[in-house]
């Protein structure tokens, strides 16, 4: 009976050691992941994308992929226009350049508007949470 208890104790100690090492490994991976998320949020904020900095990693990646695809489409359109120019190449290039500048400035304006709207949404969410807290306090009085 004692040998059986000793065997069970040995197995439970091995299992505890294994679980402890697995916990340490998972904790290390979690800390690394949190550090990477913080770094990514900082980079997004520095590049003017602070409205998606608080989103999940998947949503951030989806936004960046969509933005990249849109930019690639713009590049393809510009390349096609550049190659289709012909004799009037200089005038079309200047028109294209002015159009690119116009679109870029519009894009920047829209980006700022989105940023401002994100800020407003955050303020409204904060105010909404505060109103909920205030309502709960009033309900208990």
Overview of the structural elements:
The chain is mainly alpha-helical and 141 residues long. It has two domains: 1-46; 51-141, no CATH class. It has four helices and no strands. The longest helix has 52 residues, at 89-140. It is elongated, with a radius of gyration of 28 Å. The termini are far apart.
Total number of distinct structural domains:
2
Q: What spatial form do the alpha-carbon principal axes imply?
A: elongated
- Fraction of residues in helix: over 70%
Strand content: under 5%
Give the low-confidence spans.
Answer: none
Along the chain, the helix and strand elements come as HHHH
Q: Gyration radius, to the nearest Å? A: 28 Å
* SSE-based structural type: mainly alpha
Query: Total strand count, please?
Result: 0
What is the strand and helix layout of this fold?
Layout: H1 2-46, H2 50-53, H3 57-83, H4 89-140
Outline of the structure:
By secondary structure, this protein is mostly helical. It is built from four helices and no strands.
Based on the model shown, name its key terms.
141 residues; mainly alpha
């Amino acid at each position: 009976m004692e040998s059986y208890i000793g065997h069970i104790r040995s197995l439970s100690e091995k299992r505890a050691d294994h679980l402890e090492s697995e916990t340490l490994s998972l904790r290390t991976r979690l800390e690394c992941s949190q550090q990477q998320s913080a770094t990514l949020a900082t980079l997004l904020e520095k590049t003017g994308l602070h409205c998606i900095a608080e989103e999940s990693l998947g949503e951030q990646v989806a936004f960046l992929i969509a933005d990249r695809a849109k930019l690639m489409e713009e590049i393809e359109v510009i390349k096609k226009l550049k190659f289709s120019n012909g004799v009037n190449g200089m005038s079309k290039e200047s028109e294209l350049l002015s159009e690119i500048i116009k679109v870029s400035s519009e894009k920047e304006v829209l980006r700022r508007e989105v940023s401002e709207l994100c800020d407003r949404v955050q303020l409204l969410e904060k105010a909404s949470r505060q109103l909920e807290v205030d309502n709960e306090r009033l309900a208990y009085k």
